[in-house]
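Researcher: Structure for this, please.
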Amino acid sequence: MMFKRVTVKKNERGLLLRNGDFERVLQPGTHWLFAGLDTACVELFALEQPAFTHALADYLMAKEPGVVAAEFVRVELTEGQVGLRSENGALVEVLAPATRRLYWKGQVDVQVEVIDIAASAEVPAAVVSRLVQTQLRQRAVAGLAGVLQVQVPEHGVGMLWIDGKVERLLAPGSHAFWKFNRNVGRDRRSAVAGP
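Model: Predicted structure, token format:
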């Protein structure tokens, strides 16, 4: 008989694997694990990095709903949805359609706002404002390649193209459009004075 002592710190969680299979999540504290003929392994995860990138993520989402509900923030977007992921209230990532991820609950408050993009390519005004404010503070936001941001000058006009067709004219100001699932472009023109 063999006992193995494992310590999980307060800012960590442990993943107990027995013979390579998931057994349970270990909470902070000291744990004594009985090995016997089995191989027990504990993988430790620091909660200040909440993204759970592990080969078992899909298994946990499919077969361990109780564990996922207790330990993780679950994100499962459809082909017609995007997610705005915030950490401790600050926008950090635009999640593409069909994203499936888990984030540890605990030290970092992870929130995901889900937005339906199937009906319209236009990014809601409140989201445009958040993107602009985040960039003014020079914070990096991952996934911005999926957003076309346009600033039409005060005496100008913009043309919005979606999938090769002119969709509409853009008035002066800040605009943003989802590039996911569509080909989005713009053309800016200066205003021309009349005769």
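Researcher: Any notable elements?
Model: The first helix runs from residue 57 to 63. The chain is about 15% helix and 50% strand.
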